[in-house]
Amino acid sequence: xxxxxxxxxxxxxxxxxxxxxxxxxxxxxxxxxxxxxxxxxxxxxxxxxxxxxxxxxxxxxxxxxxxxxxxxxxxxxxxxxxxxxxxxxxxxxxxxxxxxxxxxxxxxxxxxxxxxxxxxxxxxxxxxxxxxxxxxxxxxxxxxxxxxxxxxxxxxxxxxxxxxxxxxxxxxxxxxxxxxxxxxxxxxxxxxxxxxxxxxxxxxxxxxxxxxxxxxxxxxxxxxxxxxxxxxxxxxxxxxxxxxxxxxxxxxxxxxxxxxxxxxxxxxxxxxxxxxxxxxxxxxxxxxxxxxxxxxxxxxxxxxxxxxxxxxxxxxxxxxxxxxxxxxxxxxxxxxxx
Amino acid sequence: xxxxxxxxxxxxxxxxxxxxxxxxxxxxxxxxxxxxxxxxxxxxxxxxxxxxxxxxxxxxxxxxxxxxxxxxxxxxxxxxxxxxxxxxxxxxxxxxxxxxxxxxxxxxxxxxxxxxxxxxxxxxxxxxxxxxxxxxxxxxxxxxxxxxxxxxxxxxxxxxxxxxxxxxxxxxxxxxxxxxxxxxxxxxxxxxxxxxxxxxxxxxxxxxxxxxxxxxxxxxxxxxxxxxxxxxxxxxxxxxxxxxxxxxxxxxxxxxxxxxxxxxxxxxxxxxxxxxxxxxxxxxxxxxx
Lengths: 338, 289
Prior knowledge:
The structure holds 2 protein chains of 2 kinds. Chain A is built from 15 helices and no strands.
């Protein structure tokens, strides 16, 4: 690394990057806690699986929004494509779930790759509109193609296969939870490795300053197409997970509300933090679970209020807020020492 | 041929309504570059105010319209002060989230006060029914809509091209910084145009109850239409917005009549194709957002 000798310390930015690459104990605790959930809340495993799936979906949005800075209002398009692919596959006889995940990822990824050229052409406003349009387009398509998708009634005739031919899905969501947790962890590990690698750094520099990114030789267009496709694959897989764990596909996998909710989830959790998606999903779904038992309309109202307040006062999300707090705490400690 | 003319007439009336509602959004976007997805909320508010004024207070249809214009403009001024203004310099994402939040609150509020169903109104008797013009049966209400729309368009163009305030608006849209440097209070100009635009949206929403319908999902249902018109028309351009609105109105009406099975599909395809073909708007303004 350094020709001048072993004692020469690495520059601080390399040290900081290396520290980012290492799994911290909080992260290990986070994943261990998820395993503990299985034993602590055996009655709520379905909800826990939903949170993980939504979290994974939010992580995929984080890749393009948080890291690459591409705004979108139609991320549910990929989720829905994955959900319907996994569901339709079981109706024609391919019931093995892992196969369904791969197929869902491939279909969503292909759609992501093809549409990335439309989306990446313009600036923020036209990106918003094209993604919104594509999302609504697929929603309408799924709505109209009733003989394929079942339309408003949802996809009929799904069959649940065994995971890898070994594990049956049960009524309590035990298999489902471990299955979802495993898939989430594997994908997350890949995402984490990518985002701490120079690849992730190049995305950030594109977001922060495209001109300079070009100047230091980052192929902007290729990187953005690339990450957009990758995010689509993950979104498709999370859609497939939802299908497989709930054994049902409803039309609302494509809805605008799903895309908008996801933005909220990511913002509440914190963008470009890797874990923000999961934290946001937990906060969001638990709140929804609690509030919507009161009244569905109240939920929408509070959601709106939450959005307005978040954009005004909580720009860095829950994780960012915690980080700020810890910074404050360390500064105070250092202050008292001085 | 006659049949097609009738369809064209309906489409133009529909387009006029869309124009009235969208023109304010066009100015917001062109002047401040602010992405206001909640513009439809002002239109919905206008619609509900009409229901309220006519039903609860027994005010006549025509008398209610100017009241609605003023009320919605005032409400929008309050929102501009408290919610929109702090985010002018923020990222587009923040603006999107804020305005989606406003939509959600409005949808929930409308459902709370008026219920989830469609709201019927009674337009005055002399506007009901048809008028025979050269073999065509034209709806009186739609004729009234188009006449009003034409009058408002003329007023807007005159105001923008011939008055001192209009000149300030044009200068602020074209080069905000230079305008500021020349002593034009850009923010004040914006505030007034924002209120006027929202008032017009309220008026359009009120007039549209009969044509577009009115339920709590209104701001989401027509969001794509408003955005499409503004972006295709070119932000900040009145004639561009008008032509885009009329085009969309006719295309949507014709599409729903000739190929009803596609549903809203056509409009989304049109949106994507138009955006890709005219990334800078129909009239080719250079300003891109």
